[in-house]
Amino acid sequence: MNFQEMDIDRLEMAANMLKAMAHPMRIAILKHLENGKKLTVTEIHELLGIEQSTTSHHLGILKDKGVLCSKREGKNTFYYLKHDTLGQIIDCLQRCTCE
Predict the structure, then answer these.
(1) Residues contacting 61, CB < 8 A, separation 6+
(2) Domains observed in the chain
(3) Mean of the per-residue pLDDT values for the chain?
(4) For 12-40, what is each residue's pLDDT tens digit?
């Protein structure tokens, strides 16, 4: 399927996913979840050095917009990329911002 064949709903979904990702902390979260990695809120907030409530807020936005999924295991909820290929967007951003 090429770009011209995408319907308006899919284009809107893609735009919303990109908007959700367009925040420095959310990009950092996604970078930590590359390559099939699954992390809890606690692990992510410790890696990034931000408040757990802030981490939960960012994760909620990413999950709501279809960027992340979560899976409950016992007392923990693990977050991971909904589509592994989303990591390519983060890699692209990293390459494009290098001098």
Answers:
(1) 20, 26
(2) 7-96 (1.10.10.10)
(3) 91
(4) 999 999 999 999 999 999 999 999 999 99
The residue written with tokens 């990034």 in the block is 48
Q: At what angle do helices 24-32 and 41-48 cross, to 10 degrees?
A: 120
Query: Among 65, 59, 70, which Cα is nearest to 25's?
Result: 59
Q: Helix crossing, 24-32 with 86-96: angle to 10°? A: 120
Structure token digits, residue 72: 């409950």
Enter the pTM of the model.
0.86
DSSP output for 29-83: HHHHT-TT--EEHHHHHHHHT--HHHHHHHHHHHHHTTSEEEEEETTEEEEEESS
